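Quick illustration, no need to memorize.
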Amino acid sequence: MRIFETFQLQSYLDTLVSYGAALVLGAIIGAERQYRQRNAGLRTNALVALGAAAFVDLAQRLSGSAEATRVIAYVVSGVGFLGAGVIMKEGMNVRGLNTAATLWCSAAVGACAGTDMLAESLTLTVFVVAGNTLLRFAVDAINRLPFAGHGIEATYVVTLTTDSLNAARLRELLVDHLELMRYPVADTDLVERADDRVDIEATLVSTSVVDADLDRVVAYLGERHAVSHARWEVQTQE
């Protein structure tokens, strides 16, 4: 059988290490996405990294580094189509861009692992996780800065993540608390997520909001058992 002719223990062990590294590092990146209840979570990022590693490793074993470079180019474009599937446009808002970019980075981690660049794949994983976690604080800080100029409009959105069974009740509770703080709600929307999760989004009428008021509302509602995540953000439009 040809399998006994092509099998080489050293090459097989090399491939095994590449696959294992890609799967673990992709899972690390996906764990952060899973925690934040994004559409592409732990399994998706892990499989993207593993698939990229498998294609690159196969090309390298069959035809060397030159063919591996060509396959990497195809992986980049292929994952681009995959990432487009998690981007959704809802009115004036576009969702999923960060998740799509994370999938792209997971493919890069897998490609590094597939070419036996384990140190580089580990380093890239650290940077991707840092970008999705540490930079979040910088984004929040920038969004809460006072706006300069008259051509900028700010819209405040308070979001609760819960299960579908409690969505209606928490929607009313969120509106009641915001109006109690004298922040009338212009609109509320329910956005379905993975694992039977729902985002309740309340858009405020007021363009002048005290941060501490929203912090108190989010902190109180976030302590309720049916709420897995509670947050608020500022959306701007030129």
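Residues 84 and 100 are 7 Å apart (CA to CA).
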